[in-house]
Design brief:
Largest sheet: 5 strands, parallel
CATH topology of the largest domain: Rossmann fold
Number of helices: 9
Distance between the termini: 37 Å
CATH class of the largest domain: Alpha Beta
Length: 266
Amino acid sequence: MDAAIFYYTGTGNSLWVARTLGKQMGEVELFSISDWMKDKKPVNCKVIGVVFPVHMWGVAPPILKFISEIKSLAPQYIFAIAVDGGQVAGTLVQLKNLFRKNGMVLSSGFEIKMPSNYIPFGGAETGENQQLKFESARKKISAIIPVVRNKETSPVDQGALWQRVLFTLLYKLSFSRISTLDSSFWVDGKCNKCGICSQVCPAENIVLVEGQPTWTHHCEQCMACIQWCPQAAIQYGKKTSAYARYHHPEVQLKDMLKARQLPPTK
């Protein structure tokens, strides 16, 4: 199929969804949004998919920037998959409206639930719960494929009315603060100065000072740094030292670095 899937990922959930979808569809190119935005490589595909995590119950800042660039690719059919660990709320409705404002049509939009990576709200789910969500996600992906292949138009997935009202309000209230929420990150004594946190950060928000990370306040709250730290040395607030970490078990660090076009770590 003549299609391109653009994905944004911090801990591998969206990458796994994009990769699983691409393998089943066949003849699909995958592009990291973070890296494509740097060089805007020409993409000649009639079908374009956008796979992204729900951030603060809405569309994440990098996706907002990306949408305005899609029009230049002249797609005939656009679909989106919102990956979340809780509620999709009004995220896909927001996205559909953003496409409309940019002179495009989001023909279909789907929610896929995955294990949450937002460690300030708690640690990793049990392995059993993770596997249940992965299996459910595979079934949902299989259901999405014929819709996309046939270029069908369908209503976007959305939460209950109370979720759309409440969580959209919370999104609007928190949006302007997202970039500075990194002030709650800190490093404990386990840090071995490996630099992986800086390498996996899709926002390039981390600089190393004497080998240790410093956050520069254009954070996207993807949680890549804290979840990929091999020493669990990065903390957020006061509670995360007691929490188990999470990244998708079928996505490895080398996959994340490849997506960012970085050499593997030694």
